[in-house]
Amino acid sequence: MPTLSLGDGGGVGTLNGIATYLSEGGKASTVLSASVIGLITSPFIAIIEIINAITQFATAPFEGAGESIASLFDGLLTGPANLILAGSEISEAAIRSVFGETIAGILALPLTVALALASLYLLATFLDEEETGNLFPGLPFDVPVIGADEEPVDDM
Question: What residue ranges are annotated as transmembrane (predicted)?
Fold first, then answer.
């Protein structure tokens, strides 16, 4: 039994599919009923596609924002971890070249963990430094004309 193929929805593909179906012994009543059903359902399909397009247009910025936030968190969390991992692998290679394979195999893990923790400690102490002045970074005093003159307040 031949199957009715209407192509990709274009006029030439549809006509070729109908002609092929009829030439292979298909029934004209099947083509007629498919055409009537297509005429009845096509406005509803068009309305559904319009609603889908409006919905995709409205939600595209939120989907993009969600993907960018996910990329931001991925970069903030895995980027430093990958950097520490690369540094520890370099340190391990240096330990192996200095101490040899036997001692380096014993010392590699403790030394790379210590180096990774030391680099995290340096980063934490840098982020915990006191504020500097408002004229140049690193100067411990404020210039009264620049910025607001405020008294230091203890955080509670």
Answer: 31-51, 106-127
Q: What tokens does 135 get?
A: 């004229």
d(Cα 86, Cα 118) in Å, to the nearest integer?
15
Pair of tokens at residue 67: 């993907």
Q: Is the dihedral of CA 6, 8, 14, 18 positive or negative?
A: negative
Q: What is the DSSP letter of 24?
A: T
What is the pTM (predicted TM-score) of this model?
0.41
Residue 108 has a CB neighbour count (10 Å cut-off) of: 18
| CA angle centred on 57, ends 55 and 63, rounded to 5° | 90
Q: What is the pLDDT along the chain (156 residues), one digit of tens a residue?
A: 677 777 666 677 777 877 887 888 888 888 788 778 878 988 998 999 999 999 999 999 999 999 999 888 888 888 778 877 887 788 778 777 877 777 766 776 777 778 778 888 888 887 776 666 666 666 666 666 665 555 666 666
Hey, what's the torsion of the CAs at 115, 118, 124, 126, to 10 degrees?
A: -100
